[in-house]
């Protein structure tokens, strides 16, 4: 373990001897001491198994890891992405940092927002009528950001309907196009590299779908977003409809670029600019706020505490917000593609655990599926809740009930219910002694299970931008603490390469030097199809 992380050990040993009930009983100021605010955004981490000396030690970890210097290097345009030798400047897309000299960020933003407005107003339209629907074809960062944001900001959408096709499985494109009219559909091909196998195959099939319906007009129905302008041109997209971005924007950090085009078509330029402004507000907070009040730094350190000091390998991310239903999937790529690494920036094996497994589903639905395990299973799984004080749909029984459930779960995880309490409650309800003896153990909630609650006023373009940037910076800080390159993704390469090599065997049965399992599966597929 890194020297600075091993300094957490003694604190962890102390904390493992206590529990959340005791920590709360000992300190009536716990909420005030273990929560932080930035405007209407609040992070309550008082239900984490942490105390003041442990928190102080975590801030020491951030200082020992030189988080501030790393942040300044990234913001200053140094090639912080070492293995790909690139700057990391997605913050420049929203005014949070300066772009490299010569890269016209403002002009590019103006251009794709103007195109979005043209589609919305019908200035850019198909031969008859208007574009009523937009299909975004992309995968990974060219899908998860746009689809997550589109779902989250559905109340702001007054433009065409937005659809997303990512999987190379034909089912995805088939089922999305089933009810769409190609004559009124615009297809956005989104791919930073414009070489991703799945996206290229889906783009070809979508083009065929358009051609079958509108013939030569199909070209007018297609636009591309890419940093590979030549690749998009080769595919046949007219230059005026190719929207570029730069190699200093990582795929999973690209929603702020023209990758946000479908969102902008849906919600309009003004809302899109509010989304960028929310992220810039978080950038400013991240850069200028002391660690002790710095939301992304604190969120990151709580994660380090869970992972490295307490040894918990997964995190459940539970938005109590249906419109954030794709936020866990988005965060999976952000966290796990960034920090799921086992080699340090210097090329040696890491000496510590890195990214936890992130997973989750919105509440309240998840309460009725996997929360049983979270409450009474044999593993401790820390939970991050995200919830808004207000609903975009107005005050109602729905939202109060949603909030009550969110807070109830955090309480139940932290404080549980002891066997004595179970027995007393059952006796009060006049249960027979035999019944109490039979069921008491089953009805115990061990509690002492940590959670953090991220609360904001409401989910809108500004607050969503701020929330995403909060998570981006959290991931950055953790990557610095773990000393990994958070901006490469070599771990996706082998599978891509092997898939290309497997195609001939699956297509025409040509033999290759496959292991017996793979050869057996190929033979079985041939036998079944
Ligand atoms: O799967 C890896 C990856 O490179 C992601 O990092 C990226 O977001 C995704 O593929 C899609 O890449 P592209 O935008 O170049 O099609």
Structure notes:
It contains 22 helices and eleven strands. It is of the alpha/beta class. It is 48% helix and 10% strand. It has a six-stranded mixed beta sheet, with helices on both faces. Strands 4-3-5-6-7 form a five-stranded parallel beta sheet, with helices on both faces. α8 packs antiparallel against α15 and α14 crosses α20. 45% of the residues are buried. The mean pLDDT is 97. It folds into three domains: 195 residues, Rossmann fold, CATH 3.40.50.10490; 186 residues, Glucose-6-phosphate isomerase like protein, domain 1 (Rossmann fold, 3-Layer(aba) Sandwich), CATH 3.40.50; 29 residues, no CATH class. The structure holds 6-O-phosphono-beta-D-fructofuranose.
- Rg over C-alpha atoms, rounded to the nearest angstrom: 25 Å
Bound molecules: 6-O-phosphono-beta-D-fructofuranose
The helix content is 40-55%
Distance between the termini: 51 Å
| Main β-sheet description | 6 strands, mixed
Morphology call: globular
The fold-level CATH name of the largest domain is Rossmann fold
Counting DSSP E segments of at least 2 residues, the number of strands comes to: 11
CATH superfamily of the largest domain: Glucose-6-phosphate isomerase like protein, domain 1
Tally the structural domains.
3
| CATH architectural name of the largest domain | 3-Layer(aba) Sandwich
């Amino acid at each position: 373990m890194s020297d600075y992380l091993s300094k957490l050990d003694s604190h962890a040993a102390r904390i493992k001897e206590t529990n959340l009930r005791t920590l709360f009983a000992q300190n009536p100021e716990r909420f005030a001491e273990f929560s932080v605010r930035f405007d209407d955004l609040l992070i309550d981490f008082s239900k984490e198994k942490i105390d003041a000396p442990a928190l102080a030690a975590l801030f020491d970890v951030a200082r020992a890891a030189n988080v501030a210097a790393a942040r300044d290097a990234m913001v200053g345009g140094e090639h912080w992405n070492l293995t790909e030798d690139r700057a990391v400047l997605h913050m420049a897309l929203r005014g949070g940092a300066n772009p490299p000299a010569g890269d016209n960020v403002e002009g590019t933003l103006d251009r794709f927002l103007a195109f979005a407005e043209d589609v919305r107003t019908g200035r850019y339209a198909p031969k008859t009528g208007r574009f009523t629907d937009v299909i975004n074809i992309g995968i990974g960062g060219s899908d998860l950001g746009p689809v997550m944001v589109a779902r989250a900001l559905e109340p702001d959408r007054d433009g065409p309907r937005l659809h997303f096709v990512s999987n190379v499985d034909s089912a995805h494109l088939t089922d999305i196009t089933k009810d769409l009219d190609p004559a009124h559909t615009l297809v956005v091909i989104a791919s930073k590299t414009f070489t991703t196998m799945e996206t290229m195959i889906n783009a070809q099939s979508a083009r065929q779908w358009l051609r079958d319906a509108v013939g030569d007009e199909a070209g007018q129905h297609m636009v591309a977003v890419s940093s590979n302008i030549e690749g998009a041109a080769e595919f046949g997209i007219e230059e005026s409809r190719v929207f570029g971005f730069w190699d200093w924007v990582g795929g999973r950090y690209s929603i702020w670029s023209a990758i946000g085009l479908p969102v902008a078509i849906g919600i309009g330029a003004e809302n899109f600019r509010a989304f960028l402004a929310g992220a810039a507000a978080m950038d400013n907070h991240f850069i200028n706020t002391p660690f002790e009040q710095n939301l992304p730094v604190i969120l990151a350190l709580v994660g380090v505490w869970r992972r490295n000091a307490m040894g918990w390998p997964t995190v459940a991310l539970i938005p109590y917000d249906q419109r954030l239903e794709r936020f866990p999937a988005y965060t999976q790529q952000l966290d796990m593609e960034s920090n799921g690494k086992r080699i340090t920036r210097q090329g040696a094996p890491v000496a510590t655990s890195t990214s936890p497994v992130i997973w989750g589903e919105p509440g309240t639905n998840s309460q009725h599926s996997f929360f049983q395990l979270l409450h009474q299973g044999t593993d401790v799984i820390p939970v991050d809740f995200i919830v808004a004080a207000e609903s975009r749909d107005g005050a109602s029984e729905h939202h109060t009930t949603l909030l009550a459930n969110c807070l109830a779960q955090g309480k139940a995880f932290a404080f549980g219910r002891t066997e004595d309490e179970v027995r007393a409650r059952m006796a009060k309800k006049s249960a027979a002694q035999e019944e109490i003896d039979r069921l008491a153990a089953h009805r115990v909630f061990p509690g002492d299970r940590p959670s953090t609650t991220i609360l904001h006023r409401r989910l809108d373009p500004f607050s969503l931008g701020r929330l995403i940037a909060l998570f981006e910076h959290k991931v950055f800080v953790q990557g610095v603490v773990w000393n990994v390159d958070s901006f490469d993704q070599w771990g996706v390469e082998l599978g891509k390469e092997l898939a290309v090599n497997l195609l001939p065997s699956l297509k025409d049965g040509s033999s290759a030097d496959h292991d017996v399992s793979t050869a057996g599966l190929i033979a079985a597929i041939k036998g079944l199809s």
